[in-house]
Amino acid sequence: MWLLILAHLGCGTPSEDIADRTPAALAPGAPIAGVAEGYLDLPVGGPLGGYSYRCDYLGEYSQVGNRTSAYTNAWAVSTGVHTRQGGKALWLENSDQHLVVLKADVIYSNELLVEAVEAALEEATGEALDGRVVITASHTHSGVANFSEAVHFYLGGDRFNPEVFARLVASLTDIALDAYDSRQPAALGFATVDDWDPDDQVYRDRRGDNDDLQVWDDMEAGRWKDPRLWMLRVDTAAGEPMGLFFNFGIHGTLLDEHGPLISTDAPGSLEVVVAEQFDAPVVVGHWQGSAGDASPAGSDQELARIESVGLYAADEIVALWEQTPTSTDPIYLEAVTRAISQSRDEIRVTRDGTVDWYYAPYDEDLVPDNVVYDSAGEIASPIDEFNGRYGGAFCGDEPLVTAGKIGANVEPYNGCMDVELVSWVVQGIFGLTDEEVSMPFPSSLKASAAAARLGPLPVYDANTGDSTSEDLFVSFFPAEVTAMYTEQFRRRASAELGIERPLVVGYAQDHEGYYLIPEDWLQGGYETTIAIWGPLQAEHVMEGMLDMVGDHLLTDLREAQDPQGAYQPLPSRNEPLPTEAPDITPEAGTLATALPEDFYNPFPFDSRKPHDPKAPRAHTLGVAPPAEVPRVQGMAELAWIGGDPGVDFPTVSLERQAGDGSWEAVTSRAGRPITSDNHDMLLVWQATPLYPHTESQEHVWWAGWQAVGHVHDRAGVPAGTYRLSATGHSYAGGAETWPWPTEEYTVSSEPFVVTPAEISLSLSGDQLSAWIQAPEWGWRLVDLDGSSRPDKDAGATGHNPIEAPTLTWDFGNGTVTETPAFEVIDGATVMTVKVPSGVERLLVEDTWGNVGELRLK
Length: 857
Known about the structure:
Helix 2 crosses helix 3, helix 4 crosses helix 5 and helix 7 runs parallel beside helix 9. By secondary structure, the chain is an alpha+beta fold. It starts with a helix and ends with a strand. A hairpin with a 4-residue loop joins strand 40 and strand 41. Strands 2, 4, 5, 6, 7, 9, 10, 12, 14, 19, 20 and 22 form a 12-stranded mixed beta sheet that branches. A 6-stranded mixed beta sheet has the order 11-3-30-31-27-25, with no helix packed on it. It folds into 3 domains: 452 residues, no CATH class; 166 residues, Neutral/alkaline non-lysosomal ceramidase, C-terminal domain (Immunoglobulin-like, Sandwich), CATH 2.60.40; 97 residues. The chain has 9 helices and 45 strands.
């Protein structure tokens, strides 16, 4: 498989679909579906994309110590894992065509990635998949990111690494093939609801620059986010749930640029928590929507706040799923992918003939008139302010260097930096050749996008309570679509194409930065800084999408994907795989007796500030668990010598001792194992000596598990004897490039006993307060009404309410038990009590057997 991937790196033309040569009538067929999930083989130590301040040139935020890595070029080195990057797959067919939608926990998608996965799947299955494979990204800002050849985005994810690219292709291919192998007759359905998060508990508008902008007469200006949640439900034909794929926009930015751990962030939490509302494994995939100007909300701090996002969203998402009707009736299925040209002179916006906006021809001697709007208040065209031959970067913000702007002196054009000058900066930072930064950037000249028709399906509209049968049209955009942009597309698709319910997925197929409609782009602000083709680029691509849907999906014919070759992506540079082999580590699988002196300590985890190894630590890392680990308040630890992260991504599992003395994997309510791949544990890696990575190093790994339930029963981990068990891989030698041969190792901790948490009690008059005190180092969410750790700066006490309290009054010669009414105030369970005469002590127990004692005599 990997040889196919390497061969495809130099191929810019997708394989030919023989059946597409002659248009034929589309044929409806019974829906068939397969779903799958898995993890991405992306290495710890790789660069985390999304925050440019992780770049050496701009600040090297999140760098911990003077370490280097084989997988970074000019970027901070990641140190471990909060949640592992994963992927979800949906494979649909109707005996006529296929549609494969993959969601990956990465910062963005990439057209060459799509092409390579498509080729690998065609080779493995023999199916015609040209234009029918979609890859959309979660947009986590804490995932390994150097898999894109788009040079102008190296400032968002480090220089392209061919091995990282090949590993990502292989991972997504494997997940898709698992979905292919699981195909079976299916029942499909769709539902939608607006205003499902009215209190901004899940997500919120982050773009204040357009609050005064009114674009449509029937929609007032103001602070608003795209309010829509929609869902595709996938069941077996017998009605058993297989997959749930939902869409709304939310950024993956709860961890900021200082965070050094790999994490799926808020979008990952959505999937984890929703999946745990089922009693068996169901593949849950979040397809990004209008996230360009939508921030995650949640409560609590840092890593616990990430978990809270999923909890706030789960009830509404599951409720919509429950209302979604399904059908096994025949459906039409068709998909199309195009690489839409977007060079400066090709970009034009017409809005179906109502406007004619374009850029004035480039002239190096041009002095712009700085007139943005005409006398009627409309955008003045041709636009001469955007006088950048190869585009303009950092519009609406401060440029990388003060010299080299494109010449306009009116906002937001006055911040635009000439892209050719940016290329020189990029060339120096990443050590590129002149050829690699030749102008214009090849990857900037086309934007790959996709669209699909699916239906008719039963559709439930929760806003009206109506159920209908409709064809669904899903458009997959190659950028961070914003709320106004999505609204504009919905309106235009309805008016120009007659599509009743146009659906938008962002961060798909490619990446072009932020997509704003021209009126919004001209308001300036951060979102204007990333895309390089000015105010017209995004709606120009929108018009290409409308053409694509109209030409290809609104007919009853099965048209050829691209018979004239007009919409082909650009070819790869075909860089060879790196030849730096991982370290051979003969001691892999050996328990560590001590951690290196400079080992990264994440406690307390606080991504709001740089890591300072000299700052006081809330917990001194250990190499083994204590004999007893109390719920919430205790942590089990395991440290060992493992493999080089080029081959080793250990999975640490929580195991419980059975009655016969054997060890069994602990699973969640939905049947998934509790491991370090999810938020239950933290995983940290460090090489010794710390640098240089080109010398032989010993690789030490550490894992910590806070005794908190996965999603449910967080303060109620069952009592018993447990251990942590790690499975990993070491390099076996003998290869010149990836894939590196490996040997498996396992290592386990000493057993430990999980015990009840201590309940803290306070009695003031007739008011009794009870809470579970979270530790100073706590990172797990304990309760939405509590806090994961005390933090004066955040106003957090670390108090967490108890569930279903029982009071036992002990008189010395007898006891009286009562179950009082209670309320939650400031993280504590508060009860009004009458203290009996002669009582010696009070015992408080919650539903899990956590106990607190208050002496009264």
